[in-house]
Design goal:
single chain, alpha+beta, eight-stranded mixed sheet, six-stranded mixed sheet, 24 strands, 20% helix
Length: 463
């Protein structure tokens, strides 16, 4: 992407004012985005993005600059700007590059750029047809398709020089059910680190029908009651509540500054012994998986909480200096426009011993959150609120009527402490996570589990 001699000159320029570490991140990305609405392709966007980010450290301080000018003059000028923000006494000599190609642990069969858009459109139309035909109340279906090929080069003054290719493919299906009085939406958005084969292998009948079923179910649902109840959260994307309410609090981005409810608690009990919480970027072809992180470090399976005991954090290179620990392969960024920081990959609660049926049978009265929606959290306190896309009342150990408008309100560390049953049906769900280093693909996951009590906000019917 850039030759070694030029990259070395850029690193030398970045270190001229006394920095003790410099890094170059080069990105060349191809992306296709298609949207089908009303049975026809409504939008088709294709693009290529090329840029270079340059970062320099002095102790705990860092500076970051980026450019789309990849001429020698442009790159040296950008490195010079980064250096001007750093003033130190270091006179380090950059190490000789150890050139490597990232190990491909997520095999790709068909590169997205090699596939004609007509083939992509055909898969989208099939999904739309399935959802549209699910029920006569389905009034609109929107299907989006994204595929991305990101090629990167990461080099630094410690001698790292690694190139990597990342492929992401995702389909999002949104179905609207409506009647004379109301309108409800159902959504499903599977994704993977795979090429076009992902769309060919996708079980469209399942995903498209589920999106439509959620919409139809909510259309006929009663308002959710408000109060404090036991809540059963289903597997797959149900894990988003712990991603937001706990995962972000375990990132060094907040831990190193002492702005996390989990800071300085390694070795302490933070959950019941049935809870083990893991971040693993090595799971083959999962949406949040990586070959190397955006600092050139290999991903690993990071056990954050083991049998209820806090074991560690997700740590990037800069925060590893502050925390005096090793990076965990967790430095990630959206693109060259962002400096990396500690981020999640595939984060999940490990499976337990209960079956989903046992969890439901042991619940006298509560809420069953089958599909979670979006939400927000304050990492410093762990306070959160989340919408539930599909919910049911549980009565006498059985799933009863569907309810709509449910919101879960609570505190992440406290919710973690009140998990009292964990199922054996681990599943993962694809999503996008936003933070200081931009929006990145992540997986959230868990088996079906029960929290003994969460505040549930409901919604009243219109008068």
């Amino acid at each position: 992407m850039l030759n070694q001699a030029l990259v070395q000159d850029v690193i030398d320029e970045a270190l001229k004012t006394g920095g003790d570490f410099a890094e170059v991140f080069v990105e060349d990305t191809f992306k296709d985005q298609l949207m089908l609405l009303g049975g026809r392709i409504d939008t088709s966007l294709s693009g290529r993005e090329f840029g270079v980010g340059i970062r320099v450290y002095n102790g705990f301080h860092s500076a970051y600059t980026y450019t789309t000018d990849f001429s020698r003059e442009g790159l040296l000028k950008t490195a010079h700007h980064a250096a001007q923000a750093i003033h130190g006494e270091s006179q380090i000599q950059p190490q000789k590059f150890q050139v490597e190609q990232a190990s491909i642990i997520h095999p790709i069969a068909q590169l997205p750029q090699s596939v004609e858009k007509t083939r992509k459109a055909s898969v989208m139309k099939n999904a739309a047809d399935i959802a549209s035909q699910y029920h006569n109340s389905i009034s609109q279906v929107k299907v989006s398709l994204l595929d991305e090929e990101q090629n990167v080069l990461i080099a630094n003054s410690d001698g790292k020089f690694v190139e990597d290719q990342r492929i992401h493919s995702r389909m999002a299906i949104a179905a609207i059910a409506s009647n004379e009085h109301d309108m409800e939406t159902g959504f499903y958005g599977p994704g993977a680190v795979r090429g076009f084969e992902f769309f060919e292998d996708l079980d469209l009948n399942h995903y498209a029908s589920e999106a439509a079923r959620i919409a139809v179910t909510n259309l006929g649902a009663d308002p959710c009651p408000s109060g404090k109840f036991p809540v059963i959260i289903d597997n797959e994307f149900g894990g988003v509540i712990f991603h937001e309410a706990c995962g972000h609090g375990l990132e060094a981005t907040s831990v190193a500054k002492g702005k996390s409810a989990f800071a300085n608690k390694v070795g302490e009990r933070v959950a019941p012994d049935i809870v083990t919480y893991i971040d693993d970027g090595t799971i083959p072809n999962e949406w949040g998986s990586i070959n190397v992180d955006d600092e050139g470090n290999k991903p690993q399976k990071n056990v954050l909480i083991e049998n209820g005991i806090l074991k560690g954090y997700l740590v990037d290179q800069l925060n590893s200096r502050i925390m005096k620990t090793k990076p965990t392969g967790s430095g990630r960024r959206e693109s060259y426009r962002f400096a990396p920081t500690s981020r999640m990959t595939n984060t999940y609660i490990a499976p337990g011993e209960s079956t989903p049926e046992e969890i439901i049978e042991n619940t006298e009265y509560g809420i069953y959150a089958r599909y979670m929606g979006g939400g927000s959290v304050n990492p410093a306190t762990g306070d959160y609120n989340f919408a539930v896309n599909e919910a049911y009342i549980v009565k006498n150990g059985k799933i009863d009527k569907p309810v709509r408008g449910a919101t879960l309100i609570g505190n992440g560390p406290k919710t973690l402490q009140t998990v009292d049953m964990v199922g054996n049906n681990l599943g993962h769900g694809a999503g996008m996570c936003g933070s200081l280093s931009g929006s990145i693909p992540v997986n959230v996951g868990q088996p079906t589990l029960r929290v003994s009590e969460i505040t549930v906000g409901g919604r009243k019917e219109d008068a």
